[in-house]
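User: Hello, can you help with two protein structures?

Assistant: Certainly.
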Amino acid sequence: MNPVTLTWRLLTADELTRVYLHEMCRDFPQSERKPLSMILTSEAAGTAHTWGVFDGEALAAYLLMVRPVGCAMSQLDYFAVLPQYRAAGLGAALLAELPSHENGASAILIEAECPEKAEDEAMAVRRLGFYARCGAQDVGWTEHLFDAWFRVLVLPCGSRTPDAETTVQGLVDCYRRTIGEPQWRKYVTFYRPDGSTAQF
């Protein structure tokens, strides 16, 4: 599949609902999925949006993004290529294209599950390898989000890659604007490469 022949467009609420029920429920375990109502509310409020990538009329991939008004960076929340389009390098091609669709974003923020904390360590290692091959850089920080542990990665939208501190500050900004000051401080903690807790 040639990525050039594919079309990107934002999904409507009805389309997103179908994608959630028929695709996301297959592609992501329940423990990793936000409730559909939360996703739809975020999109209605303008703090999130979802790209559908289409092969003619057929959906080939979807990318759920978080980018509240005022945030300099976009956060990749969920990304999957549909089964019939996998194993042909399409995922890497689409991730490389993503910055050009996130107009004005200085970078794409990515949270990748820590292999040593994951239920499926091999899968977590493969995901990190995939992101690395696509140009995303591991900034060396870890994140404890609710009950899960993540590595913080950044995919630049241009020639300049934000440094680690700026990248993590971008994630803080996303959480502060989406779930509010008390909530994000309660449920999200960032750790520097030396293991110390970061204060923001």
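That covers the first. Now for the second protein you mentioned:
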Amino acid sequence: MAVRSHAAATPALRVLNLAGVEYSVHEFDHDQTTRRYGTEAAEKLGVDSHRVFKTLYILVDGEPVNALVPVTGQLDLKALAGARSAKKAQLAGVAEAERRTGYVTGGVSPLGQRRSAPVVIDQSAQDHDTIFVSAGRRGLEIEIHPRDLAMTTNAQFAKIATLD
């Protein structure tokens, strides 16, 4: 895997380029009728869906947090609240998530958001040499080592997902 500049660099890719970490960009034709964005990415890229992580914009005690969980799993809101030493976690609304991150649903990246927020990555990411996260638009994915993603986003790893 090598550092790759992408012609249509998104804010997420610009962050990685500045950080100098290794990553790869993978692009596919997004089907506009699809709403299961992460599952679509895994299928179209031909990768194990346990390695494709969705970015969920969550309010934890009213403060925004990015929760990254495999597309094969579900976010455990209680576990996320516990990981943040908080009482309550709830999904933020689509409009709020898009406004605060600067990305559209299905293309929310934990990198390069308009307003940065803490990142919590499900610990299962550490079971893989590389994982995939959105590069900032539908049909564009970043393949990166979990350690490099955590370093670049100042993330913590925690058990926040129930996996299928």
